[in-house]
Amino acid sequence: MEVENTSSSLPVKPNFQPLKAHEISSGQVQFRKVPVPPHRYTPLKKAWMEIYTPIYDQMKIDIRMNLKGRKVELKTRPDTPDISNLQKCADFVHAFMLGFDVCDAVSLLRLDELYVESFEIKDVKTLRGDHLSRAIGRLSGKGGKTKFAIENSTRTRIVIADTKIHILGSFANIKIARDSLCSLILGSPAGKVYSKLRAVTARLAERF
């Protein structure tokens, strides 16, 4: 008894093209608004073309500055290839408003695994007056040496804005950088934090 070859009778799988942004959103235009803090208004004016070009040309998202509302407004276009581009662009602009350089923040457009995490010194320990000033000084180090050492070891970017700290990087690297910064806030000497960083980064290097 012959077994019928059923493989030839199987239907051919259809090959669908990726949906366009306006198709996913049922043809509706999607918006995002990013507020501009007063102290970032002048830097935004200077870096406007560096921000505008990748968003408009590469991500195919419309962008404009609403001078009255002091907000950067973003919206999808009919030729936007992916609806997620809108959120990526909003994250990019928001990272710039937090104080990151354009060349660092633009990586949020190109890599999916990057995030920005923010916390305050008081979230770690309640400090006031000179104690708070000394903690901020420990985070930066002399001439920013400590901050640069943590950034280079963990492949992150750190912005210390008064009592707020913002970290840009991958999930695992943000955790390492955050732990180091928390140790400094709690009073650990920089040397001890450096040696712990070296041990953790060496373990990470072995894993990869």
UniProtKB/TrEMBL annotation:
GO cellular component, one term: nucleolus
Pfam families per the UniProt record, alphabetical: KH_PNO1_2nd
Keywords, in A-Z order: Nucleus, RNA-binding
Gene3D superfamilies from the UniProt entry: K Homology domain, type 1 (3.30.1370.10)
Annotated K Homology domain residues: 113-186
Keyword field contains DNA damage: no
Molecular function GO terms recorded: RNA binding
Cell location: Nucleus, Nucleolus
Taxonomy, superkingdom: Eukaryota
Record carries keyword Repressor: no
CDD domains named among the record's database cross-references: KH-I_PNO1_rpt1, KH-I_PNO1_rpt2
Family per similarity comment: Belongs to the PNO1 family.
The protein's name in its UniProt record: K Homology domain-containing protein
